[in-house]
Structures are given as C-alpha cells and as structure tokens.
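Repro:
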Amino acid sequence: MLVTGLPGCGKSTLVNQLLTTARQKGIEVGGVSTPEFRTSAGKRRGFLIQDVATGKEQVMASVELASPVSVGRYGVNLEAIRNVGVTAIDSAITGSDLVVIDEIGKMELAVPEFLSSVRKALDSSKPVLGTIGVRLKTPFAVDIKTRADVTLLRLTPQNRSQIYQDVKNLVGL
C-alpha cells in the first residue's frame, strides 16, 4: 500500500504513528524513513535516511552537500541511499513482518538499486507501507502507483483520521 498526497499533508507523520502502533503490538518493522533535519533556528537543512529497525542513519541530502545529483537546493548523497536505504529495505523483506518505505521520492529515485529494492518489496509476500509524492510522474512512480496489487490512498488534512484507520486495517494492525 502506498500513501500519497501533497507535501506537508502528513504522510510521514502517519507512517510514524503506524510504526508506533505496530511496535506496541509486537510487529517486527523494517525499512526506511527520511526525516528532515533543521538548524537550531528551525530552517530545514536536509534529510536523513534511517533504517527503522536498527536506527542506522546517514545524511541523504543537504544544502551543504556537493553532489552530481541535486533535487531543488539539496545535493543528494547517493551512497547513503545505497548503504542505508537499500540495505534496510532488503533486510526488511527477509526479516520483518512489515516493510516501511518512507519515502519513494525524487532523491531516492536517483539510485537504481533503490528502485530494485522497492520492486522486490512490492513483489514479496510482506505487507508494504510506503509513501510517494502525488506529483511524482516518473515511469517508475507511475508503474508502482498503478500496480494491480497496490492500494493507493490519497492523504489530505481532512481525511487523516480515516486514512490512518484504513491503513491500520489494510496492514493488519
């Protein structure tokens, strides 16, 4: 299942709430999250990529990072996506009850191995909870959004509570 919506609608917040619920129920969760990091003054400086099972993290993108790949004002650390993201998803497929991929976005799509791991997760028998931008229109994004075996839920501030309940039910929480 994929949750989509505009930036800032609460996709990552929803996933974090569901992670907490799953862990409270003793469900083994693996995969990745990509929280932002900010300066002490509150200005966003970039994004981390975290393994939700182990807590391992690296800077995935930063305004200070020089990289051949950039998204907006952020340089993208492709090796962090490979080292943490791909490894975490692959480990979750084999060792977790629920695979989380927060998020499938422009930065992550720059790494072919990440795309392969997302496909492997979706092709596996494990339930997958992922987030993906509503405006993301790459061939890969369109393909996974329209898979017959993927439920795509659009999150808005108005339907947050209902989507939370729908996702809980769909992943067996």
